[in-house]
């Protein structure tokens, strides 16, 4: 009997694993159910089953994803999970590899939280540039929380222990329920009318539904518009709300908020002592410096002999006056010499000479003009011949029977060319 048509268990398991791994619909599935057979391994991996009224599926959540869970899963919890379906080859069982897990009933709240967070971030309510500085040594701290419970007791006891000089003002508010968000926002507005240095807004831990008022937009905008710096203190260290992102400073717990709001008296005393030491050192250095400066002035030559300082100034003044006097005298002598030269000038003594000199210069210029005057040659018996208003310089420029004009010293002659001899 041939057995080549029979598959091994490994072969069929791998085939089924391949089919499930390659199915696009099984790469990302969303399931809801109740946790059973829960086991948290020492490696951080979570092993459990998800079941409903009629079926059950094995599940595993590796430590990398398990660290992202915001609650502590336990037996019997109803949860929402997202992951992929696959086959575990060693047992041949199919199971879900969980990437995300939420408590059932908070899925819609989580979606609303992420949407409001994104909208407010885009609008700029989380910007660091808008956050105010928490004063180092406040005198009055406002507190907005429930008037009863562990949160208010922890805050007040911590402030009194750390910095008893600080006054606290409680603005009791609803921190859970339908009307809590509007009440918290209203108390923030009221607190801004009081003379307080910093405001703590928060409550103790709880489920996401309990903390939800601090995720409402009305609370976020009240914190953003507050003129008083606000420290948010909502829930435990792992809890984050919209109020935490808008506030000027986020504290992990209400007790932590009190520690951030006021300094430690012991540290303040130490700092004051340091300031005192530094102040005394600076005063001592300044006194020594001024003392040395005074001694140097007291022993200075000028203080001991003030008359000498006056005599030095008087001597400098005499030198300056003498210099001014010499400058004026020199200037007068120069001006006097120039005046004497002008006074002895022959033109001033005999102004007719100036006329005669200019007349001689004029006649010389006329003579030079006469020498270069082209008509001057006519006086010596020469003449100028024109044809068509042009001077004839060459006999070749004339034509037989052409009319010409001859200019002489005392007149002009019009003639006609009859013959040309070269």
Percent of residues in helices:
40-55%
* Strand order, sheet with most strands: 1-2-3-5-4
Cα separation of the termini:
154 Å
Give the H and E element order: HEEEHEEHEHEHEHHEHEHHHHHHEEEE
Q: Can you tell me the residue ranges where pLDDT is under 50 for at least 5 consecutive residues?
A: none
Strand content: 15-25%
What value does the average pLDDT take? 86
Shape: elongated
This entry's quaternary arrangement is single chain
Please compute the radius of gyration using only Cα atoms. Answer: 58 Å
Summing up helix and strand content along with how strands pair, one would put the structural category as alpha/beta
Biggest sheet features: 5 strands, mixed, barrel
Number of helices: 14
**What is the number of E strands?**
14
Which terms would index this structure?
44% helix; 21% strand; elongated; single chain; 14 strands; 422 residues; alpha/beta
């Amino acid at each position: 009997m041939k057995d080549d048509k029979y598959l091994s268990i490994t072969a069929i398991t791998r085939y089924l694993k391949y089919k499930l791994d390659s199915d696009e619909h099984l790469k990302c599935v969303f399931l809801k159910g109740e946790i059973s057979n829960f086991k948290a391994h020492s490696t951080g991996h979570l092993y459990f089953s998800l079941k409903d009224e009629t079926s059950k599926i094995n599940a595993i959540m590796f430590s990398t994803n398990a660290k992202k869970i915001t609650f502590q899963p336990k037996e019997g919890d109803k949860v929402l999970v997202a992951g992929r379906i696959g086959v575990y080859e060693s047992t041949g069982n199919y199971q879900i590899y969980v990437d995300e897990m939420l408590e059932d009933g908070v899925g819609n709240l989580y979606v609303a939280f992420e949407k409001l967070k994104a909208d407010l971030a885009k609008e700029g309510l989380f910007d660091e540039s808008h956050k105010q500085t928490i004063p180092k040594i406040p005198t009055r701290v406002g507190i907005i929380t429930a008037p009863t419970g562990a949160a208010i007791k922890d805050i007040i006891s911590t402030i009194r222990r750390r910095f008893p000089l600080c006054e606290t003002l409680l603005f009791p508010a609803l921190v859970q329920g339908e009307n809590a968000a509007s009440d918290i926002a209203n108390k923030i507005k009221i607190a801004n009318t009081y003379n307080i240095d910093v405001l703590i807004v928060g409550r103790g831990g709880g489920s996401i539904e309990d903390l939800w008022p601090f995720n409402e937009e009305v609370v976020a905008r009240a914190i953003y518009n507050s003129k008083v710096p606000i420290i948010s203190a909502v829930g435990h260290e792992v809890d984050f709300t919209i109020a935490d992102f808008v506030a000027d400073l986020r504290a992990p717990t209400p007790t932590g908020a009190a520690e951030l709001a006021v300094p430690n008296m012991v540290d303040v005393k130490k700092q004051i002592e340091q300031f005192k030491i530094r102040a005394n050192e600076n005063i001592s250095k300044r006194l020594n410096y001024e003392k040395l400066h005074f001694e140097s002035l007291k022993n200075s030559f000028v203080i001991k002999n003030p008359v000498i300082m006056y005599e030095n100034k008087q001597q400098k003044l005499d030198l300056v006056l003498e210099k001014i006097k010499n400058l004026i005298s020199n200037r007068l002598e120069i001006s006097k010499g120039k005046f004497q030269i002008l006074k002895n000038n022959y033109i001033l003594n005999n102004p007719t000479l100036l006329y005669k000199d200019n007349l001689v210069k004029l006649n010389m210029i006329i003579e030079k003009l006469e020498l270069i005057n082209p008509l001057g040659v006519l006086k010596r018996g020469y003449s100028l011949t024109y044809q068509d208003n042009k001077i004839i310089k060459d006999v070749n420029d004339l034509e037989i029977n052409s009319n010409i004009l001859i200019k002489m010293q005392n007149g002009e002659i019009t003639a006609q060319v009859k013959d040309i001899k070269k």
